[in-house]
């Protein structure tokens, strides 16, 4: 029985470590600094990372990964190469419900 418990713990630890490594190797282009993007993204150096931040400041947050290709110096090849490393708005607050769409209690059943 100890053998099974030990294997289960090892498997759980491996899963947690794998998830942590993946999470650390992604970047939210709507909140990351140029330095963070430079470290994580492939073929994005300091000048392109700064261009991403400048574009974001001038045009608002990115709505899709593809929109990154609108930044001067970044093409769809670079976007595709980095697709799995990019997150969009994962740290943003959830949207507020539209007025009049709140759930209402219907009383006892």
Automatic annotation (TrEMBL):
Any Gene Ontology biological process: protein secretion by the type II secretion system
Record Pfam families: HHH_3
InterPro entries: Competence_ComEA_HhH (IPR004509), Endo/Exo/Phosphatase_dom_1 (IPR051675), RuvA_2-like (IPR010994)
SUPFAM superfamilies reported in the protein's UniProt record: RuvA domain 2-like (SSF47781)
Region forming the signal peptide: 1-23
PANTHER family xref list: ENDONUCLEASE/EXONUCLEASE/PHOSPHATASE FAMILY DOMAIN-CONTAINING PROTEIN 1, ENDONUCLEASE_EXONUCLEASE_PHOSPHATASE FAMILY DOMAIN-CONTAINING PROTEIN 1
Originating species: Xylella fastidiosa subsp. multiplex
Gene Ontology MF terms: DNA binding
Name of this chain's protein: ComEA family DNA-binding protein
Keyword list, A-Z: DNA-binding, Signal
Entries under NCBIfam families matching the protein: competence protein ComEA helix-hairpin-helix repeat region
GO cellular-component term (any): type II protein secretion system complex
